[in-house]
Task: structure prediction
Amino acid sequence: MSTQTDRTTTAPAPADAPAPADAPAPAATPDALGVGMRLSLHPHTDDFVGVILGALADVEAAGLTAGLVTETDEVSTYVGARTAPAEQRLAAYLTALVAAASRRSGGGHVVAHVLLSRGCPGEVSCDLAVTGLPDAEPVEVEPTGIRAAAQWSLYPLLDGGSDGGDHMAHIEGAIAAAQRRGVAASPAHYATRLTGDVADVVATAVDAWAQVGTEVPHVVTHLTISVGSPSPAQA
Result:
């Protein structure tokens, strides 16, 4: 006598089948999320045009424009990161640009005004309700040997919704992280003061902005970087 075992098999789901209702949303690409910055570079020298154009050429020659889109108008330059690692590309570009401008101006006074934005509003149109927020690895930028002082402000947006949100917790956490990594951070009116190598200052601001962006859909940070200032240095 033979015994037949009843086996139930499940056919594989079609490749285009919808994901289960409780499945996490796929993480947005940098292009879809809208990751980028707007910056203005101001060398305080009569040859400011030569310094700016030379610094831009230096950054391009170093291969740091790969994966970035740049658009310049009479006010500022937009730099959009289209591919990962978006934060690393932006940090490397900004650090190299400020350092190159400082060197081309003979160590003179150079200021950069930077706005970094991560999230849809004002950048691209997307639905963050169905798009996951991607994680961001800490950036790694080679030291430049150039000291910078900066004023830094961080704005977590859209964190409240109907149930409220504690945006100060994100800001305080970012400041604490800056202090832990050795970049001098002290309070100032409407900003936090950062001092250190240009690379460390930029990496501190970018990492904090990106980390908050893994939890808050739209995050903006302002950074004014000054190198070679004639004003007395502060601790």
Observations:
- Residues 30-227 form a domain with the Alpha-Beta Plaits fold (CATH 3.30.70.930).
- Helices lie at 30-33, 48-61, 86-104, 167-180, 198-212.
- The first helix runs from residue 30 to 33.
- DSSP finds five helices and eight strands in the chain.
